[in-house]
Amino acid sequence: MDKHTITNDYVIIKALDDGVNVIGLTRGQDTRFHHSEKLDKGEVMIAQFTDHTSAIKVRGKSQIISAYGEVFSDSK
């Protein structure tokens, strides 16, 4: 796999409280916010890493599941 190969991995984010923020960050020389969603308790978002999205930031109490395992984020 070369440095330009993108695996298009998916991440599942389940909000455990109201008001969980999911923020997509751009790929490239300058990392910037490009998309934001707010989830309420019980809502699930399936996000994908793409040519444009290099990172996903999650703020708030949630369960995050990926091919690499499961983690829980804390509340603010």
Automatic annotation (TrEMBL):
One of its GO terms (biological process) is regulation of DNA-templated transcription. InterPro entries: MtrB, Trp_RNA-bd_attenuator-like_dom, Trp_RNA-bd_attenuator_dom. Residues 7-73 form the Tryptophan RNA-binding attenuator protein domain. Keywords: RNA-binding, Transcription, Transcription regulation. GO terms for molecular function: RNA binding. Oligomer of 11 identical subunits arranged in doughnut-like structure. Belongs to the MtrB family. This is Transcription attenuation protein MtrB.
